[in-house]
Write a structure and sequence with these properties.
CATH superfamily of the largest domain: Translation initiation factor 3 (IF-3), C-terminal domain
Oligomer: single chain
Distance between the termini: 75 Å
CATH architecture of the largest domain: 2-Layer Sandwich
CATH topology of the largest domain: Translation Initiation Factor IF3
Radius of gyration: 30 Å
Largest sheet: 4 strands, mixed
Number of domains: 2
Number of strands: 8
């Protein structure tokens, strides 16, 4: 059953071990009742006594239909999950001596990734003896970050980890990306005539 992960979170009815509980709800005024009286009130309404806040003194309970309560909880969790923004991380790989054409090609891809709202992880991979060109790799990554400053901000500066030097870029807000687009020059009165 899908509600199994939520079922064990709350104590209901006879599972509540406190001697007194505070009952809150729509049709009941908030007050402290002995557990026996609270259970009887719930039973009279054909509802369940559900412990909402077990750490309070006395514990806070509601008289509600437990399956309906679980349904509402699950629905609320689903809505919160839908509101979360997922960030994808796109990787772009360079060699320490990447030429301009390849660099520009990868730069265009990075711009499209950032405009889509994805993070970019750019790295220079050093093979064999190319580790001697660490400085070239760092310069390349810093140039990459500088060329993307209109679209992204640097989350992590270049770091050498084993044979990889990595930099992380995060997209700027949408408003900043709109400002980055060059505005069309306004025509003067002479040009209009």
């Amino acid at each position: 059953m899908k509600n199994d992960n939520l079922k064990g979170q709350h104590r209901i009815n006879e599972q509540i071990r406190a001697k007194e509980v505070r009952i809150v709800g729509d049709n009941i005024e908030s007050a402290v009742y002995p557990i026996a009286q609270a259970l009887k009130m719930a039973d009279d309404q054909d509802m369940d006594l559900v412990e909402i806040s077990p750490n309070a003194q006395p514990p806070v309970c509601r008289i509600i239909d437990y399956s309906k309560f679980l349904y509402q909880l699950k629905k609320r969790q689903k809505e919160q999950k839908a509101k979360q923004v997922k960030m994808n991380v796109k990787e772009i790989r360079f060699g320490p001596q990447t030429d301009n054409h390849d660099y520009n090609f990868k730069l265009k891809h990075a711009i499209s990734f950032l405009q889509d709202g994805d993070k970019v992880k750019a790295y220079v991979f050093f093979k064999g003896r190319s580790i001697l060109f660490k400085e070239q790799g760092e310069v390349l990554l810093l140039r990459f970050a500088n060329d993307l400053e209109d679209y992204a901000r640097v989350e992590q500066m270049p770091v050498l980890e084993g044979k990889r030097m990595t930099i992380f870029l995060t997209p700027k807000k949408k408003e900043a990306a709109k400002k980055a687009k060059p505005a069309e020059p306004k025509k003067t009165e002479e040009e209009n005539a």
